[in-house]
Design brief:
heterodimer; A: Rossmann fold; 2 domains; 4-stranded antiparallel β-sheet; about 35% helix; B: alpha/beta; 11 helices; 10 strands; globular
Chain lengths: ~280, ~280
């Protein structure tokens, strides 16, 4: 048994390949070109890149939500690359996803109570609905979410509350691995800080492993142990956060770092060229 | 110093539904060529101020008092037709979302030249030449091709450049930029911010820059107004407010920003006691 919970080796993912009209071959678009990543037990790993870099595709592949053309995914020592849906199902509870837009990922027609307890009942984590509700109340307490939220609909909550409900839904299943895809972009800084601190606490207390996808390096720096920098479907740099931020090796990483506007005044920043220009 | 381009005096607004205050006696001035950041968390009223200037407040928002003086004339007291002409000609908007702000069914050329032809009465060929120049000015590499393109054929960064070109087309005195780079990647954001700043310097345009990103404010604005619950909490030059904040809330927001340079400093949420205190202060008459 290794210290790695989740390992992806040489992942290639191609979209839109196959045969087009008149049987002509279509090459498709390569979203990932041989990407290898690993997430250790209890480790938080950042994946950073800009639009089109393949970061979201990588996340979805780790959860077996898109099929790789080649490569291998190993979860807890078991090759899951070609597992069928029935074989995957028991693993699904252990691999959870927190979505980018809680407005789109929380069913608008269900009350929060149903939204957070349904997965518990589906995966038979609890004996009955009463038990599920008890757990939901306990976790809401811990997340400083008012218990009254349970009776509300998603649109009646604030953005920060909705995001915490998304985190609570995943945490209730006591997973081993969580994928968080751009979960704080678009939040106010204070709400963002709250959500990030909550995630940090959870990973520490539950020994959770997490892959944290973001376009924002300063957020990655705040909560990740290691980081992968993705560009055009290739990992261009990886390493421990302290090292990568202190001395980025790849010019793309430098460009990403240079482009972050700091709240500290820096009169020359705007006109200064970033690494790639 | 000459008279300000924009002078907002004691602007208050309420929600028509429950009379809840949305803006509480907001005042600010803007000189020619100045960039003022309007910052605050959601619900602070920053977007509402931008909409009030552009005369596009939602029907449910009612201005209860105050003036918005643009070059000395109150926009709120101006007859509708005159206001619309003025806003088309002298005040422009750079919207947040470059995906939805352009008409998906019309070529870029039509969208860039409408104002020139309809407002200025410029001939089609002269308008086209001007549009080409504008696209060059926003550093679009193949301006001829982009003029013929539909919005979906352009990347997000390209679309935002087109929108900046459109905003500058009629040489406005004032531009309201509402989170113009929030939807963009950081490297593209920096290019767009630089472009906006350089265009503005070249044309002497004043800009109201609505954003929630204090980093962007620090790097592109001259002055800043921080709002909470529709009320001004602090204002001043960027150097004053960002380097030596007077109000606890300003300091707290700066502490909440993630800091890639010094991670141990950032990510402290605004304390709930401070929020409670601010709510009381804001509600006090």
């Amino acid at each position: 048994m290794t210290d790695d919970l989740l390992v992806a080796e040489n992942l290639e993912i191609v979209f839109g390949a196959g045969r087009g009209a008149f049987g002509r071959k279509r090459p498709g678009v390569k979203a990932l070109r041989g990407v290898s990543v690993r997430v250790g037990r209890g480790e938080t790993v950042g994946v950073v890149g800009e639009s089109g870099s393949g970061k979201t595709t990588l996340g979805r592949a780790l959860l077996r939500l898109v099929e790789p053309a080649s490569g291998r995914i190993v979860f807890d020592g078991r090759d899951i690359t070609r597992l069928g849906e029935t074989q995957m199902r028991p693993l699904r509870r252990r691999m959870q996803l927190i979505f980018q837009d809680p407005m789109a990922s929380l069913n608008p027609r269900h009350r929060i109570l149903r939204i957070v307890t349904e997965p518990l009942l589906f995966h038979r984590v609890v004996a009955d609905a009463a038990d599920a509700e008890r757990r939901a109340r306990a976790i809401f307490d811990r997340f400083s979410l008012p218990v009254s939220c349970l009776a509300r609909y998603p649109h009646e909550l604030s953005g920060g509350q909705r995001q915490r409900v998304g985190i609570a839904r995943a945490a209730l299943l006591a997973p081993d691995f969580v994928l968080a895809d751009e979960i704080v972009s678009g939040l106010d800084v204070s709400t963002q800080a709250q959500a990030l601190n909550l995630l940090k606490e959870l990973t520490r207390d539950l020994g959770l492993s997490m892959a944290f996808i973001s376009h924002d390096l300063s957020v990655i720096r705040a909560i990740c142990d290691r980081v992968y920098v993705l560009r055009h479907g290739v990992v261009v740099e990886e390493g421990r956060c302290e090292a990568v931020f202190a001395a980025p090796k790849h010019e793309y990483t430098r460009a990403l770092l240079d482009a972050i506007p700091s709240p500290r005044l820096d009169p020359g920043w705007l006109q200064r060229d970033t690494a790639m220009e | 110093m000459s008279a300000p381009v924009l002078d907002i005096r004691g602007l208050s607004a309420v929600s028509d539904r429950d009379q809840a205050p949305i803006l509480r006696r907001v005042s600010l001035t803007l000189a020619r060529g100045e960039t003022r950041g309007l910052v605050g968390e959601s619900g602070a009223g920053k977007t509402t101020i931008g909409k009030a200037i552009l005369g596009i407040l939602p029907r449910a928002v009612r201005v209860t008092s105050g003036e918005i003086l643009f070059q000395g004339r109150d926009l709120l007291a101006m007859p509708g037709g005159e206001l619309r002409r003025l806003i088309g000609e002298r005040i422009a908007l750079i919207p947040q979302d470059p995906m939805t702000a352009l008409n998906p069914g019309r070529r870029i050329e039509a969208q860039l030249t409408d104002g020139l032809r309809l407002v200025r009465g410029v001939s089609a060929s002269a308008a086209r030449a001007r549009a080409l120049k504008l696209l060059e000015e926003v550093r679009i590499r193949e301006p001829e091709r982009v003029l013929r393109a539909y919005p979906h054929e352009l990347s997000g960064g390209m679309r935002q450049r087109v929108l900046i070109a459109a905003a500058f087309a009629l040489e406005p005195t004032l531009i309201v930029a509402d989170e113009p780079t929030t939807a963009l990647d950081v490297t593209v954001q920096k290019q767009i911010l630089r472009l906006l700043r350089n265009m503005q310097a070249a044309h002497g345009t004043a800009v109201i820059f609505v954003t929630h990103d204090l980093g962007v404010v620090a790097q592109v604005c001259d002055s800043v107004t921080l709002l909470f619950g529709g009320k001004m909490v602090e204002e001043g030059t960027v150097a004053e407010v960002m380097e030596a904040p007077k109000h606890d809330y300003t300091r707290a927001l700066l502490d909440a920003c993630p800091r890639s340079d010094q991670p141990e400093l950032g990510l402290r949420p605004v304390p709930p006691e401070l929020i409670a205190r601010l709510r009381r202060e804001v509600a006090a008459p």
